Amino acid sequence: MTARSNPVADDPLGAILGMIRLSGAVFIDNHFTAPWSVLSSVTVQDCVPFHMNPRQLVAYHLVTEGRCFVSLPGHAPLIAEAGDAVILPRNDAHVMSSDLGLAPMPAEESVIPGEEGSVACCRLGGGGALTRIYCGFLATSEESNPVFEALPPLLKISINECESYDWIESSMRYAIQEIVQGRLASSTTMSRLAELLLVEALRKYMSSGEADYRWLAGFRDRQVGRALSRLHQDLAHDWTVDVLAREAGMSRTAFTNRFSELTGLSPMRYVADWRMRAAQTHLKDGGHTVAAVAAKVGYESEEAFSRAFKKNFGTAPATWRERERDCA
After folding, report:
1. Among 128, 190, 303, 314, which one has the highest count of C-beta atoms within 10 angstroms of its own C-beta?
2. Cβ contacts of residue 53 below 8 Å, gap of 6+?
3. Which burial class, exposed, middle or buried, applies to 318 when counting CB atoms under 10 A from its CB (0-12, 13-18, 19+)?
């Protein structure tokens, strides 16, 4: 497969993740020898070395050697092998183990903290078959978003089956080389890697036929999905129901009915909601004036944008940005 220029930016799902402003990191290098079992979830303290204070976390594990079970209450356990990534979109506490039924060990006592600029290491188990797992996370300052809410709590993807295999494999290779040499992999590389994993998890879930969440259902529909892809690639465009219907190759009435049925929102309500999400991202970046943000999300005037923003969030854009800075 030939790698694209930027698989996250070129993919509509990746573009949506980009608006969420995710930061990623690998925070621990695990060497487990059978038998072993650990209770796992990412904590805010795990993010401190990376100077992050997230409101929401996505946990992920990259298995590079051996195999393990991943168990979550109320769900069938997964078997993850070398080359697999396990993703927990809502960072639910879960058990990883060499065999089912083992009592979790106190992993914290076996963690060797990394020195400044290096990743922590955990060596645990009974001395049997080795399983090596890199644990990482994606962090966002948003309190909630439909991407994470739409996914099931536990997903597994095989790296060699991913559409973005070239990017994922090269990012993993770079990160592992850095970690082996005792250094933290660059935040840019790890953010890209984790974003790609999440995009692939979304794509796999959507193609599985199990995605009954309305937000994702729109992307699974061939015609509505085409309109959604164009919309998310250029939120500032002068979108109308007629224009979106033409993108979908449907009549206005048929498009409106199907779009509303799949997403739970009218087309223009959906446009307005995502423009506001994009506006929040641009305001958090701090590099744009309110007028510039208004233009970026499709408003002809700063006044109209400010009215819409205040209606949605209860405060003016500039005030909202200052409040977010104070909370950071």
Report:
1. 190
2. 44, 47, 141, 328
3. middle
Helix ranges, 99-251 (H): 146-150, 165-180, 187-207, 214-220, 222-233, 241-248
Residues whose CB is less than 8 angstroms from the CB of residue 102 and which lie 6 or more positions away in sequence, other chains included: 35, 36, 37
| Cβ atoms 112, 121 nearer than 8 A | yes
5 pLDDT more than 60 = no
Does residue 7 carry a pLDDT above 80? no
Strand, coil or helix: 69: strand
pLDDT of residue 100: 95
Spell out the residues 6+ positions from residue 314 whose beta carbon is closer than 8 angstroms to its own: none
- Under the phi-then-psi rule, with left for phi > 0, alpha for psi from -120 to 50, and beta for the rest, what region is 127? left
What lies within 8 Å, CB to CB, of 239 at 6+ separation is 231, 268, 271, 298
| pLDDT mean over 146-157 | 80
Buried b (16+ CB within 10 A) or exposed e, 127-153: eeeebbbbbbbbbbbbeebbbbebbbb
- The model scores a pTM over 0.85: no
Is 198 within 8 Å of 17 (Cβ atoms)?
yes
Q: How many residues does the chain have?
A: 328
Cα→Cα distances 161→14, 103, 133, 240, 307, Å: 18, 33, 19, 38, 46
Alpha-carbon span 182 to 162, nearest angstrom:
28
Mind listing the pLDDT tens digit for each residue in 171-213? Answer: 777 777 776 666 665 567 777 777 778 778 877 777 776 655 5
Per residue in 43-96, pLDDT (tens digit) is 877 777 776 777 788 899 989 999 999 999 888 999 999 999 999 988 999 999
Candidates 26, 46, 48, 30; CA nearest to 38 is 30
Q: What is the mean pLDDT of residues 276-285?
A: 85
Per-residue DSSP letter, 137: E
User: Quick one: tokens of 310?
Assistant: 């205040």
